[in-house]
Design brief:
The chain has 356 residues and is α+β, with helices and mostly antiparallel strands. The chain folds into 2 domains: 239 residues, ACT domain (Alpha-Beta Plaits, 2-Layer Sandwich), CATH 3.30.70; 80 residues, 3-Layer(aba) Sandwich (D-Maltodextrin-Binding Protein, domain 2), CATH 3.40.190.10. Helices cover 26% and strands 27% of the residues. It has 10 helices and 16 strands. Helix 3 packs parallel to helix 4 and helix 8 packs antiparallel against helix 9. The relative contact order is 0.16. Keywords: Amino-acid biosynthesis, Aromatic amino acid biosynthesis, Lyase, Phenylalanine biosynthesis. This is Prephenate dehydratase.
Length: 356
């Protein structure tokens, strides 16, 4: 059910049109997804929702083939709602990523002056990225949280708040004026987005890949330390580990781990098999190319999203990316990557490399 194969399906981005996640989808396919004729020609059907959980739910329920969701900010760190969505009861897999420079416009209704602003809105993750600018350039104003930055712009258009920190494109969509563009408290701030689908064949090995898993360990002394030793003893570079509550019991956590390499790399595959034996529950979240960028062009010293980003080096799905099960050396046997790890750990899968 690849996105490029079915006109009736698309990919689901967490916010309304005009937000970063939606813009990533439109930009990286090289088309303007706001144009229905273009969207139909490219089999792209944006499905706006208001949270990462709703985005992945759309994939799980078959309303969308892909979800493009923010997973990490260079300013605020992990987007916890995305991590929680990925660890839900239904398995999901990451296929691509892209890191996009983040800067905001301060959007207002036409005729609004800075001194008229009493309320302003943005997504809570975006708020710390512009707070210093707002404090320095606007009068004291009440912050009102929005589901997304484009939703904040829509709130301005409806008269619910006076200003919004949002992408400039949102201002165009809602007929707003900009008091300032390129607003960012931290120069060079970026947000990393990932393309999520149902489990299947991992994205092809490139030599510069990222593999991600989520796991639970037993609540006993040294459990996490033993888990980390499994990774390091196999020569795998651990690049990130995060913890999130399981929501089942106080003090019970699950861990998200990123490592350098691809599941088809022997040392990574061996580490994953050993992890499966060591932890209580292990879920494979995917192996995919690391986005090196840069996806920026410089205009008057401001970093802006480049118009030259193409599908080949960005997050948009390609015609070769369909959640299709990978094969083992035995043509009649089919395993998802998750199943393959489990079978190899138990010694019940063919002792050969997976042919990805």
């Amino acid at each position: 059910m690849a996105m490029l194969e079915f006109a009736g399906h698309g990919w689901c981005d967490t916010p309304p049109q005009g937000t970063r996640a939606w813009a990533a989808g439109a930009e990286n396919t090289g088309v303007d997804a706001t144009e229905p004729t273009v969207a139909n020609d490219h089999r792209i059907v944006p499905l706006p929702v208001d949270s990462p959980q709703h985005a992945v739910d759309a994939v799980i329920r078959g309303r969308a083939d892909w979800a493009c969701v923010a997973i990490e900010s260079s300013v605020e760190g992990p987007v916890t709602r995305t991590f929680d969505a990925l660890a839900g009861s239904h398995p999901l897999q990451i296929y691509r990523e892209i890191a996009i420079p983040i800067a905001f416009s301060i959007l207002v209704r036409p005729g609004t002056r800075p001194q008229d602003i009493a309320t302003w809105s943005a997504h809570p993750v975006a708020r710390p990225q512009v707070t210093s600018w707002v404090d320095d350039h606007l009068p004291p104003a009440e912050f009102v949280a929005a589901h997304s930055n484009a939703a904040a712009a829509e709130m301005v258009a409806r008269g619910e708040v006076d200003a919004a920190a949002a992408p400039a494109r949102a201002g165009q969509l809602y007929g707003l004026d900009s008091l300032a563009d390129g607003v960012a408290d931290v120069a060079g701030a970026q947000t990393r987005f990932v393309l999520v689908g149902k489990p299947g064949k991992p994205t092809a090995h490139t030599g510069r890949d990222r593999t991600s898993v989520v796991f639970n360990v037993r609540n006993e002394p040294g459990a996490l330390a033993r888990t980390l030793t499994v990774v390091s003893s196999n020569g795998v570079d651990l690049t990130r580990i995060e913890s999130r509550p399981t929501r089942k019991a106080l003090g019970e956590y699950r861990f998200y781990m990123d490592m350098s390499g691809h599941i088809s790399d022997p040392h990574v595959a061996t580490a994953l098999q050993h992890l499966h034996r060591t932890v209580q529950v292990l879920r494979f979240l995917g192996s995919w190319p690391i986005d090196d960028g840069p996806h920026v062009a410089t205009t008057s010293g401001q970093a802006v999203a480049s118009d030259t980003v193409t599908a080949s080096d960005a997050v948009a799905p390609s015609s070769t990316m369909s959640p299709d099960k990978p094969s083992t050396a035995t043509p009649d046997e089919w395993f998802t990557a998750q199943e393959w790890i489990a079978h190899r750990a138990k010694g019940t899968a063919p002792d050969t490399d997976v042919l990805w």
